[in-house]
Amino acid sequence: MDAWQDEDALADQYADASNLAARQVLHARFATADRSPHEWLFDQFDLAEDAVVLSLGSGHGALWTANADRIPAGWDVTVTDNSAGMMMDAMEALEDVDREFDFDSVDARDIPYPDDTFDAATAHFVLSHLADGDREQALSEIRRVLKPDGALYAATTGIDDLAAVFDAVAAFGGRPADGGFALENGTDQLREQFASVERRDFEDELEITKPEPLVASLLSLPGFDGTDAFELEEKFREQIGDGSFVVERSVGVFVASG
How distant is the alpha carbon of residue 149 from its chain centre? Predict the structure, then answer.
């Protein structure tokens, strides 16, 4: 089983927000898009002013902190994660936001809420961490707790996301095999539970001018060894040269309903 789907490995990887933050720093510093992925994901919502929203696998709450001043006052938002450490980080990050959130520790495979509770659910960069049977169970649970006209917003990456980075360091490690739920295959999986599935792509690339954040991002992943940090940095300095290392992103969201 890949490290992205092994429960013990995931518990270690997401014990708190440090690994996730290392990866987000890379994108925050070098992305060329006119808005962050979190802002773009919030833009995809089409919800009523009094929507009840379930946020699954929220990590340290970046979707909500990045859009704190855009959340309608009438929304009832429950922020969840399967990691207690992540939940603590999310609570701390959101404590200064001028609105109420509910927080809960939730496993997407066994959602502890009644049928037809939510107008929308988010599962951003979550479903690829589940093995096939567990992912089917999670999607069934999400469909159950959504209202009949509710919508799931599920962000993920494509199988070639950051391909140039992993090609450059193939001798040191590889991208985790997170293609179980990717842009290329998510539609068919979602159609098992939802009548309507729309894929929306986020246009972005990285223009990396410093190797250190890229090395930190790689070392936050399972499969890369910190003892290789110096060699990784030298490899990326070669890629950057006198300019920048341009890396294509493949990121998007599925909007599923019905």
Answer: 24
**Residue 20 has what pLDDT?**
63
Give the pLDDT means over successive 10-residue stretches in the chain (258 positions). 48 51 83 95 98 95 95 97 90 92 96 98 95 97 98 97 94 84 97 98 96 91 89 95 96 97
Please, which residues bridge with residue 153 across strands?
122, 255
CA–CA distance, 132 with 82 (Å, rounded to integer): 18
Tokens 């599925």 belong to 254
Please give the angle made by the CA atoms of 29, 53 and 254, to the nearest 5 degrees.
Answer: 60
Cβ–Cβ under 8 Å, residues 206 and 32: yes
* Other CB atoms within 10 A of residue 88 CB: 15
Of the candidates 31, 60, 14, 74, which has an alpha carbon nearest to the alpha carbon of residue 204? 31
CA 1 to chain centre: 20
Measured in degrees and rounded to the nearest 5, phi and psi for residue 207 equal -115, 90
Phi and psi at residue 211, to the nearest 5°? -80, -25
Longest dimension (CA), the chain: 57
